[in-house]
Structures are given as C-alpha cells and as structure tokens.
Amino acid sequence: MKAHRPRKRFGQHFLHDAGIIARLVSAIRPGDTDRIIEIGPGEGVLTGPLLEAGARVTAIELDRDLAAALPERLGFPERLEVIQADVLGVDLAAVADGPVRVVGNLPYNISTPIMFHLFKWRDVITDMHFMLQKEVVDRLVAAPGTKQYGRLSVMAAFHCRMERLFTVPPGAFRPPPKVDSAIIRMIPKPLEDETLSRLPQLEEVVRRAFGQRRKTLRNALKGLLDEKAIEAAGIDPMARAETVDLAGFISLTDQLGEA
C-alpha cells in the first residue's frame, strides 16, 4: 500500500524504526485480554503488533484518509475498531466497555490538552504509554527545584504515577521532527471522591503559584491565601512555586478550603 504523505497541519511524524517499535511493544506488553485505545495510529505500525498480540484495539484517528486505510492495511476486523475523530471530542467512557489501556504517539502541538482530557476518564484507564516530545516528558517527571518543574509536573503527578522509559531520536520518524522524543508510562492513582472534588481549587492554587515563577508564594497567592494560611500549610511564604512538591500544594489547597 502506498505510503501516506505526512500532513503538517496534523503534526504528523510517522514512526518507522523497527527497533523502537519493538521496544515500545515490549514496554506495553499487550495481552490477549487487553482492551486498548490507541490515539493517532497513523499507518498502524504499533496497531499491528497490538492486534497480533491478541488485544482488541479502538484506534482514534483524525486524518480521514489514514482512518479509512487502517482496516484494509491491518485486517483483524473482529478486533479492530477505527473512529475517525478528534480525540478531544471523544467520550472515552462511551467507547470503553470496561477497563482500557491507552497508547499513542501524540501530536506534539496538542499533547498536553490530550493528556488532561484523558485524566477525566481516569476511572476506566488502567495505564497509558505515550510517545511525546522529550521536553514534555522532562517536565512531566521533573522534581521540585529543577528548571523543568512546573504546573504540568504538579498536576500530572496529582493524577498519575509516571516513569520515563526511553528516548527516541528524530531519525526514527518520517519526516524527522526537529526534537528528540521520549516514551513515558503513566498509571492513574486511586483517588477518593473527596480528593477529586478539590481538584478545581488545586488547579487554581497551582496556576496562580506558577503564573509568575519568580514571585514568592506570598505575592503569587495574594488574594487567595494570606501569609498566615501559607505558614499553616507548613510552607515558607517567601518560597517560590518551583520548590513546593505536590503534597505542599495539596496542603495549600486544604488551607484554601478552611479559609
């Protein structure tokens, strides 16, 4: 079948390195009882091995031509479903008929919105394996006190346990992107309903804290938490957001609730 011409407007870079594909499949370890949702299957280089392992795969592809070609390219009609859609508009609870695993080579320009869309369906997701821009993975797994640590690090850590797996060079793709990529494993954490109910407040605290990174928390959170409340959370009001871990931000959110 003729190779698909990558479309810049969709941020398409097709993985073609057989060694990298094999490492990714090995990291996912698909099984014949797995229900997998794949985001951005492209030409199906990962979809095929997932199906060959016995998994049922729902592939969500925005590009109409790619979506139409996948069933003919791959076969397995009894275990492959293709949805031509923007994943940001897909209700995963309606797609899933039980626990699902999510995989994908996410378009780098919208990878963060896609991840936060998926966090909404955390109750039905067992794990997620993504190929992302290496810089994004660096930010996701960053520790407090590092340059990469920020709002994305905190909020992703609230939802998931994360593990960087390996780096993927530009030459593994067609066409090669201008940046390195990396594979990350994300496993949703079990969270109580009460904890999840505080999520909007946590998001506001984190957003304000990192809004101007060089500001102290006393200044960044002015009008939201006063100095006394920040101290009651066990945090120095003169500290900056990049030094505060997830537990610290949760403590600040608890103070917001008490206020």
TrEMBL record:
Keywords: Cytoplasm, Methyltransferase, RNA-binding, rRNA processing, S-adenosyl-L-methionine, Transferase. It comes from the Bacteria. It comes from Wenzhouxiangella sediminis. Specifically dimethylates two adjacent adenosines (A1518 and A1519) in the loop of a conserved hairpin near the 3'-end of 16S rRNA in the 30S particle. May play a critical role in biogenesis of 30S subunits. Its EC number is 2.1.1.182. The keyword Transport does not apply. This is Ribosomal RNA small subunit methyltransferase A. The gene is rsmA. PROSITE patterns: RRNA_A_DIMETH, SAM_RNA_A_N6_MT. Transmembrane segments: none annotated. SMART domains: rADc. S-adenosyl-L-methionine binds at H13, L15, G40, E61, D86, N105. It catalyses: adenosine(1518)/adenosine(1519) in 16S rRNA + 4 S-adenosyl-L-methionine = N(6)-dimethyladenosine(1518)/N(6)-dimethyladenosine(1519) in 16S rRNA + 4 S-adenosyl-L-homocysteine + 4 H(+).
